[in-house]
């Protein structure tokens, strides 16, 4: 059987691409609003958010995880459909990663080395490393339920990008609360939480997204 015929046969038994593209963004939005919103109702939005967003480091903290979420969403929908390619969605992921890495390098240059440890540690390390992963889990679970109806050729990669998307959305919500504005803090610890969920998504994808 030719590869094209095999793909067509398998794709006949999965959710059409248009359905995946229609459902997954709503799942991402709904789970982020429910669980991110619940956290913000309990913990509260930082009171100086509007003023703080006028500072580049705060703006990057809000934007870079959002770029990961949006870029991850677009990419994972394509990965779930054989033969779709990746489009330009990886560019958004790169933009998110590059923006925070550049901000971190700038801080390392302008800050004295003596204050680096304090900048990396911040004031809310334990909260950050707890809330972002916990908030990501239901978002990831809902996304994987939809993606189980697709046909990814590389299920581990698809799961990893779903994890990246989910954690990016969770970190975007958490950033409305967080007052640790130094890129050395959020680049390191938001990044650690996001990559941890991406790895979990990889493991779950290999298990649950196989044809």
Structural write-up:
The chain is mainly alpha-helical and 211 residues long. It has one domain (15-208). Helix 2 (17-43) runs parallel beside helix 8 and helix 8 runs antiparallel to helix 9 (183-208). 77% of the residues lie in helices and 0% in strands. The model is unreliable at 9-15 (pLDDT under 50). The longest helix has 27 residues, at 17-43. The relative contact order is 0.18.
Summarize it.
The chain has 211 residues and is an all-alpha fold.
* End-to-end CA span: 17 Å
Oligomer kind: single chain
Q: Main β-sheet, in a few words?
A: none
Mean pLDDT: 90
Q: Give the CA-based shape.
A: globular
Q: Give a count of the beta strands, DSSP E runs of length 2 or more.
A: 0
How many helical stretches? Answer: 9
Q: Which residue ranges are poorly predicted, with pLDDT under 50 across at least 5 consecutive positions?
A: 9-15
Count of domain modules:
1
Using only CA atoms, what is the Rg?
Answer: 18 Å
Structural class: mainly alpha
Q: In percent, how much strand structure appears in the residues?
A: under 5%
- Tell me the helix content: over 70%
Order of helices and strands: HHHHHHHHH
């Amino acid at each position: 059987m030719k590869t094209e015929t095999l793909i067509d046969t398998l794709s006949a038994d999965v959710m059409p691409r248009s359905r995946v593209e229609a459902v997954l963004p709503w799942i991402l939005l709904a789970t982020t609003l429910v669980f991110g919103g619940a956290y913000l109702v309990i913990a509260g939005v930082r009171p100086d958010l509007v003023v703080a967003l006028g500072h580049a480091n705060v703006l990057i903290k809000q934007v870079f995880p959002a770029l990961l979420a949006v870029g991850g969403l677009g990419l994972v929908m394509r990965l779930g459909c054989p033969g779709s390619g990746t489009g330009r969605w990886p560019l958004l992921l790169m933009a998110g990663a590059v923006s925070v890495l550049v901000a971190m390098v700038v801080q390392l240059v302008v800050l004295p080395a003596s204050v680096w440890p304090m900048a990396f540690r911040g004031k809310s390390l334990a909260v950050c490393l707890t809330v972002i992963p916990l908030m990501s889990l239901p978002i990831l679970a809902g996304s994987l339920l939809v993606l189980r109806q697709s046909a990814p050729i590389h299920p581990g990669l698809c799961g990893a990008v779903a994890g990246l998307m989910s954690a990016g959305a969770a970190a975007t919500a958490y950033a409305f609360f967080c007052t640790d504005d130094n890129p050395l803090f959020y680049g390191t610890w938001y990044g650690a939480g996001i990559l941890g969920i991406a790895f979990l998504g990889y493991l779950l994808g290999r298990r649950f997204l196989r044809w």
